[in-house]
């Protein structure tokens, strides 16, 4: 269960801490009495004790609050609720002196520390020295905040210690991946998340041994972290609760939430900066404000006043008493990103590939048996294809066709290029077999381990053998597998949680999206890309794949395929490109072991391949198209990637750990930081539209998965809410781009394609 380490609270209780409002105390009778509390369940009593603790923290830190502790959402997550009706006044005001804060100057230079009251100057100095030493490392601001937090927990005022001990959750109750113990990692299910957890653990171990450990760290004399668990706790707290502010920029509008307030605050975003900072950045851990939970449509925003004297929680619209107070941590984070950064996902996240799966929450569990059934159905269709694709009898099919599936005149499967699979054929078969009651060919299915062995006994057994092995691999690829950690038993269960299923759905859609957005927009460029593939200019094509682009299909039923294809270069050992002709295929073929020769698409592919190989999860190495099909430059695409690829440091806006190619490209784009993170940004009450295209950032994971917002996809989506991928495969022109990209970009391309088919079939079953 994804939330397995997240504490669950009783649903029947909304505990209000009493509110303190400077100059106008709103304290009154607490919303509970001693008499009732003695009758309450232990959980309810605990919640009430927390409400009392919160009140003491509010008093001790001189926080002005019209909010109280509440438990809300489907999981009754602890959070804030409004104590009274508020239109536009600040719901919570925290003096900056009651926060822990680290600021980084705009030139990427000096870190300075806002020490908690009572911190001796020499300690502050020592921490600042460490800050200087680690300023080149990712997430250094978070690390320094963690140092301050550990200091406050041990040596701080009574209020700070109460905040740390009573209000901050212990590590076992925090949801972020850092807090997953080795034994819990299997519950993450997705290998990518397990990897991310491992990466975060590495970071914590490094921070502990180098800096924080009471025995070995540079700050050991402070005695802050006796055990690794102390460091993990502190890092997890700041990751999940600190707020990053980018200050001193010109006002503007754009993406992000907009303050429905007139106080002229600097803009702020909870969590990592989505763009690289160009101005001073302040990371702040602000008690009470840090209790606000996330919502995709938040009713509040956190801001820093322009004089930087207070952190405020402001309503974006009027809120009523008891209403949960939420902010947007995400800034276009997909479920996968939210999960990686915070360890939770939300219902109906609009950034999951922007492709809605109708009733995604009601999708059945991704069960092995259903995947196998889907694979069997595909196999039946595969058996039927030879008749359909016989040169003599079959009509031409649109799209890409593997050499093994094309008419014998083109060489067929005897040419040694039979590694491909029939994408278009599958699409056509799918259409025709919508009402199939079972395949014509017999098959034998045997189970072993988690996978499925499928052996065909129908026509074309040799071809089936290849296809069967891919099906088997695809099922294994898709099936739950969590045995990534030695000693952990393989999980033979399902992707059983709705959260996981949403993530999976989002991943697949992102795969499609990425492929389309990362490719040239014109048909001519499509053709050039395919030719580059043939000529071996695209890294990753080493499997002897052979493609065929059917000219009848590329523009759909009503338009012609124009202009005719360029003559394909003779060099490279590829099969010739036949001239465009209405009735014939443009056969594009490549042989194995081609190397990149530096063509632009090749560069793009190479960057992607390198990033994928390096385990990068977010890659948009080249330009692409925007939602309207407009061409965008590399920088734009990379910026989008950067906006979705900041690594850890959920609270560390300043330390956005954008990695790899996306980072490099995004850095070049830093001058183009949209101005919504601006000084004095005063948005509209309703938050307005998000004119930014950051939501289109794509994600690639190894064996990856992407999505598309291309118009064909949208159309397809509206026609077929579920099973989008195969519809895309039949849209001709985009199909060529899509599959060229899939095959060129991703390792295990063919496996991926088969896996996609299995998923599509799965959704149909
Ligand atoms: C800044 S804290 C918010 C307060 C926190 N719920 C608490 O009780 O201390 C962020 C953490 O709250 C949880 N959280 C916030 N919003 C959530 C949501 N919409 N669904 C589930 N968990 C959420 C996650 O565990 C996240 O890491």
From TrEMBL:
Domain of life: Eukaryota
Domain SET: 59-330
SUPFAM superfamilies in UniProt: SET domain
InterPro entries: SET_dom, SET_dom_sf, SETD3_SETD6_MTase
Any one Gene Ontology molecular-function term assigned to this protein's record: protein-lysine N-methyltransferase activity
Region (Disordered): 380-440, 554-585, 618-655, 667-694
Residue ranges, compositional bias (Low complexity): 569-582, 631-648
Name used for this protein in its record: SET domain-containing protein
Protein species of origin: Volvox reticuliferus
